[in-house]
From TrEMBL:
A Pfam cross-reference name: Phage_int_SAM_3
Name this protein carries in UniProt: Site-specific integrase
Species annotation: Faecalibacterium prausnitzii
MF annotations from Gene Ontology: DNA binding
Taxonomy, superkingdom: Bacteria
Domain Core-binding (CB): 45-126
Family: Belongs to the 'phage' integrase family.
Biological process according to GO: DNA integration
InterPro entries, alphabetized: CB (IPR044068), DNA_brk_join_enz (IPR011010), Integrase_recombinase_N (IPR010998), Integrase_SAM-like_N (IPR004107)
Protein keywords: DNA-binding
Gene3D superfamilies with a match to the protein in the record: 1.10.150.130
Amino acid sequence: MMDGYQKDGSPRFKTFYGKTQKEVKLKLKEYQDALISGVQLDTILYFEDWADTWFEGHRDNIAPTTQESYKYCLKMLKEGFYHRPLTVIRPINIENFLKGMRRDGRSDSYISKARGMLYQIFQKAEANDLVRRNPVRLAEKMRASGTAKRKEAFTTAEVAHLMKVLPDDRMGLSIRL
């Protein structure tokens, strides 16, 4: 496909490859849609590079302890999407990554945190015209893996008994809080 002219006036061609004609036509359509929507196509930006850029811009908005937990999660995300251009990551890739986390024994809350970070990373990429749409928004959310554990709480009678028997020193007062 010819998509313009070079500086010297000669035509500039863009070539698409695929295993089938249907795949080539799909790539061509995605390219044309991206041109129309203004997405920057000249440079390839890899996930790990954009994730680092996002984190550096986001770190001033979060507490130091949150930064540390984000760093650990970000490391895992970068390993999962290593050397993949942002523009080729699809909702199915997000879903498969999160399912892999579950298979590896990650907790539901950690999977939710990873999905949330992915959402923020791609949301910022979309806002900066690096991707046409956020693939995380289109990926199905995972349901909790098991039944919620029953939480135990003191009854009113147990609380009244504790208040009677707790000492009046620092320890007793801190427990009362």
